[in-house]
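User: Last request for today: this protein with succinic acid, please.
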Amino acid sequence: MKQFDFLILGSGIAGLTFALKVAPRGRVAIVTKKDRAESNTNYAQGGIASVTSKEDSFESHVRDTLTAGAGLCKESVVRTIVEEGPARIAELIALGMKFSESAAPSEDGGKQLDLGREGGHSERRILHAKDVTGREIERALLAAVAAQPNIEIFENHIAIDLITSQKLGYVGENRCLGAYVFDKKANRVWTFAAPVTVLATGGCGKVYLYTTNPDIATGDGVAMAFRAGASIANMEFVQFHPTCLYHPKAKSFLISEAVRGEGGILKTLDGREFMDAVHPLKSLAPRDVVARAIDSEMKKSGADCVHLDITHKPAKFIIERFPNIYQTCLRYGIDITREPIPVVPAAHYQCGGVVTNVDGGTDIAGLFAVGEVACTGLHGANRLASNSLLEALVCAHRAAEKILSAPLPKSDFKIPVWQSGNATNADELVVVAHNWDELRRLMWDYVGIVRTNKRLQRAQSRLANLQQEIQEYYWNFIVTADLLELRNIATVAELIVRCALMRPESRGLNYNLDFPDLNPDWAQRDSVVRKEK
Ligand code: FAD
Ligand code: SIN
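Assistant: Here's the final one, the structure of the complex with succinic acid:
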């Protein structure tokens, strides 16, 4: 049994920001699946959207967010996050974060931050560190965390399930008491107890065969919260990033939207600029529009990818602005200053998640959710580019403020240690590997960018079979990381399909050929799911 004041699951921008804010008030455990920097945050390229220039305004950022969200954003949440952004950015800079600076001096001759442009933004407002913004955020936050004696990081530890009073058989309000955590190196399960537990576990890109996300993104937070009885919403809104590098040897490498922000043009393999006929913003149209257009071009022509061409820009500019993309593509034999980049859409971001208010509060007492795992109402049916790092920063701060504004709850619940019962070592691990592949492929084929009810129903029945098999495995065999993650991607896949089947319309990222239009009855209506008791 390990006892802390704050238990944080995840060490991306959301978990680390929250940890730094609460550390002065108590002992903090950060539990993280792999090494401490490994997170979606670490791979963020484009940057953080926030209003910092005189030409820009909160009103404009709010409007762009609401437009991208296709009528489903909660306007008050959008306003709060947009308006509190600049103060959180200033704190990040004070912690040591180095954003790229503009070559041009400010009006008073001083330095000013360089502002990038991305799809759906009507102004240049993306603060970035060249094309490795996330790596720089993790560096700065982890350095600050290392200086805090109250924070202990548990690497290679994977949370299995939340411990709640209801699961333990207590009546009354359902309260989160901590989590069971699998220690991968020691091969044993620990009980972490804390009056405050924070899910900061990120997204679920690994549910799909092709994704921009690293391996940690298996939707564990949503799956654990669902099993614990929390409300989950809007899981049908999976954002597919239009431009992931297409190369047989490249795993999940994103080509930032900032490349199109700086003039990159999407073309068919024979050089046609196909976005001209699709949207007035052409290659910089909102992500859902661009991803669907690429999908449609690939289906029409049978091509395996499309091209993203930035060769018309000076080579020096490309290499300085996008050093990571330039070097990575070069390693695969593609010189982006001289030839177009082969790209395909890939699963990128989970707009739905654990239902929270703007302070990270869930409907389970003592359980908070911040960052990509949460559904605050900021993104609605489609996230505006670079709004997620902003949301994580603002909501982690607000959650910490809210929690620190009252004494921490005292707990006299008796928490049992983890029981393995009669579980034995798995006899055929090939079953786990096979189910991983089958699940991710079926999600890609049947629950992708363009959906139909028939495909969704087909996915639902196959997922039911897979889930039954996975459950048998889970109960009979000693847990492994692969099995725990498989169980979670299966739960999240089922929630995505369930939410998609609930929504009889095409809105934002949920595009269903059986319901091609908006349905006014579903304007402002979230698709909410909860575990049956
Ligand atoms: P993450 O950063 O994903 O961190 C999750 C953490 O939880 C990890 O430490 C992980 O190990 C841990 N974890 C997960 N499950 C468990 C478990 N069961 N037990 C213990 N630990 C667990 N957004 C932007 O705003 N701007 C961008 O430019 C941008 N670029 C992106 C580029 C790429 C390639 C990707 C993949 C995403 C990008 N995004 C961007 C999205 C953004 O990076 C994420 O939404 C954001 O970083 C999420 O932060 P987080 O702290 O919520 O989760
Ligand atoms: C990108 O750099 O294209 C990713 C930006 C985002 O996902 O917000």
